[in-house]
Write a structure and sequence with these properties.
Largest sheet: 7 strands, mixed
Subunit structure: Homodimer.
Distance between the termini: 19 Å
Number of strands: 20
Number of helices: 11
Radius of gyration: 20 Å
CATH superfamily of the largest domain: Medium-chain alcohol dehydrogenases, catalytic domain
GO molecular function, one term: oxidoreductase activity, acting on the CH-OH group of donors, NAD or NADP as acceptor
Pfam families: ADH_N, ADH_zinc_N
Keywords: Metal-binding, NAD, Oxidoreductase, Zinc
Oligomer: single chain
Structural class: alpha/beta
Cofactor: Zn(2+)
């Protein structure tokens, strides 16, 4: 995975991929796959979603501290059908429908050995430079990171396991459970899947905030107990905290910030009860100015989230049993042509009524 390059030359069907070549420029070009290792599988991509980080790479050639320095295949939310298996693969077979976990850890470092492989410093993650992504006809990936989908779970839902994993990991880190009152900052795609996960983990009441009326109405229709419209104005924090606490109607045990701005974290810290916890998921700003001292005086814990670990089996089980339904989040679908790829990213970047934009290959 991620070791391929441009071109083919092997006489077989030419593998095409969406390459990020410069700011605001994506081109469908040949993508040569790496050799199939004994523990690898070759997967024909069938569903690939667009993530906010994909849009950031397109607009800025960077996301957080990751910088694209040479052409890179984009995409990491994906599912497909296995077309070839390595000689040592026993758990999967040709024709199996699978969801792919996009990060390959080293398996040797202290984080991997300690069970926190998402923090591995040698992680090779789809579409995180310089590693190529999965918006391609085919990819090669370790079999252990390909999870078989039940018959009643579609390939699109399989691709949605990636963003859903962020919500599941956040709920684990935050400690969401029965009788927990949860505040979620941000009703974008990650805020919505976090809401789904919190409910599946047993949260008794969920309030969600956003600056956008449409996103709030979607959140309400999908199960939020209450919604609160907020602003980007820092001076409005105190008043909005009162509104949020009134909407909850009880102590806010946990707040999960899926936006990651100074305003949202300040609101989260002030709204959460003494002895509660705030979980930071979003990375809207690199540096935040927040009221840490008052939060510390009330013993409000702060935990961070980076991607996820060991989430695919639980996500698939939630989908299989119907405990979580991600289908309403897929608002736009596109094929895999140059014109459609460009249009899909424009729709995703524009936002408005778009939640999850999905490619059907």
């Amino acid at each position: 995975m991620g070791k391929g390059g441009e071109g083919s030359g092997d006489g077989k069907e030419e593998n095409m991929a969406a390459w990020l070549v410069s700011v605001n420029t994506l081109k469908i070009q040949p993508y040569q796959l790496p050799p199939l290792g004994p523990r690898d599988v070759r997967v024909r991509m069938k569903a690939v979603g667009i993530c906010g980080s994909d849009v950031q790479y397109l607009k800025r050639m960077s996301s957080a501290h990751f910088v694209v320095k040479e052409p890179m295949v984009i995409g990491h939310e994906c599912a497909g059908v296995i077309e070839e298996v390595g000689s040592e693969v026993k758990s999967l077979a040709v024709g199996d429908r699978v969801a792919l976990e996009p990060g390959i850890s080293c398996s040797r470092c202290k984080y991997c050995k300690g069970g926190r492989y998402n923090l591995c410093q040698e992680m090779k993650f789809f579409a995180t430079p310089p590693v190529h992504g999965s918006l391609a006809n085919q990819v090669v990936h370790p079999a252990e990171l390909c999870f078989k989908l039940p018959d009643n779970v579609s390939l699109e839902e399989g691709a949605m396991c990636e963003p859903l994993s962020v919500g599941v990991h956040a709920c684990r880190r935050a400690g969401v459970g029965p009788e927990t009152n949860v505040l979620i900052m941000g009703a974008g795609p990650i805020g919505l899947v976090t809401m789904f996960a919190a409910r599946a983990f047993g949260a008794s009441k969920i309030v969600i905030t956003d600056v956008n009326d449409h996103r709030l109405s979607v959140a309400k229709s999908l199960g939020a107990d209450a919604i609160v419209k907020v602003s980007t104005n820092m001076e409005g924090v105190d008043e909005e905290v009162i509104q949020i606490q009134k909407a909850m109607g009880a102590d806010i045990d946990l707040t999960i910030d899926c936006a990651g701005f100074s305003k949202t974290m300040s609101t989260a810290l002030n709204a959460t009860r003494a002895g509660g916890r705030v979980c930071l998921v979003g990375m809207g700003h690199h540096d935040l100015t927040v009221p840490l001292t008052p939060a510390a005086a009330r013993e409000v814990d702060i935990v961070g989230v980076f991607r996820y670990k060991d989430t695919w089996p639980l996500c698939i089980e939630f989908l299989r049993t119907g405990k979580i339904d991600v289908k309403p989040l897929i608002t736009h679908r596109f094929g895999f042509s140059q014109e459609e790829v460009e249009e899909a990213f424009e729709v995703s970047a524009r936002g408005r009524d778009a939640i999850k934009v999905m490619f059907n290959l």
